[in-house]
Amino acid sequence: MNRQKVMRILPWVVTPALVVAIVVVWHLVVTIGKVNPFLFPPPGEVGSKFLGLFSSDSIWGHTATTLSEILIGFAIAVVTGVFVGVLLGKLPWLEASVRPLIVITQVAPKVAFIPLFVIWFGFGITSKIWLSALLAFFPIMLNMLLGVRSVEQGHREVMSSLNASRGQTLLQLEMRSVQPYLFAGMEVGIVLATTGAIVGEYISGSQGLGFLVVSSMNQLDAALTFALILWLSLMGLVLYLIVNELKRFFIPWHESVYGLRNTTA
Predict the structure, then answer these.
(1) Can you give the pLDDT at residue 206?
(2) Separation CA 165–CA 132 (nearest Å)
(3) Pair 131, 113: CB distance under 8 Å
(4) 26 burial level (CB within 10 Å; 0-12, 13-18, 19+)
(5) What is the pLDDT of residues 6-28, one digit of tens each?
(6) What contacts 200, CB < 8 A, 6 or more positions away?
(7) Residue 246: which H helix or E strand, with range?
(8) Helix (H, G, I), strand (E, B), or coil: what is residue 261?
């Protein structure tokens, strides 16, 4: 069997095995170690609470709220990140001028922005959307900037020899060349967008899955908290896999899609 097939099958074998191993170890630690289930509930109780989540219609409303915040914030980050990244990549003098400001906004604790967003946008989903967009913006923008700067000069000269216009060079060469960088930024961005939305709900939310997690903690229901975290993790995983599948669809020719696709056993 060649290396490509092994790499594609491996996650479907190893990942479930690891999940089973973690659950078994978890169960043994709680039962044999006699850990207080009030503090660290057994996996069976967490599983029961997880299934119980979907017996109530409210979970879908909270899930829809969180998903809306993530997806809208992520979309804003993609649009602005692509625009700013291309602009700064094309204008080195502008990039040198504004980079310190961009870095400052990224190294500052994002939780510190939440009170400002609440003042500006209120306690609704808008403040969470902007926090989600803020977190996802930087990796997308930075990857786009790097992608624009990484277009090979030889390829530009070929386009010039073919009398290609600036628009043709941008669409047919540069945009194609930056796609791997864009999707790399998007894969990081969707994770950060999810984090931003949930953190916003933790601190100032009255709806959404992050709000439910805080409510379960206030009720001292550890099993429900674990179940909600599991649901959030699965949702984030699905969003990441969607972005990953988009990468496979749009750039199947790039090596990052299949890894060592040309290496055979």
Answers:
(1) 78
(2) 37
(3) yes
(4) middle
(5) 767 777 778 888 888 998 888 88
(6) 69, 114, 117, 127, 128, 131, 132, 210
(7) helix 222-250
(8) coil
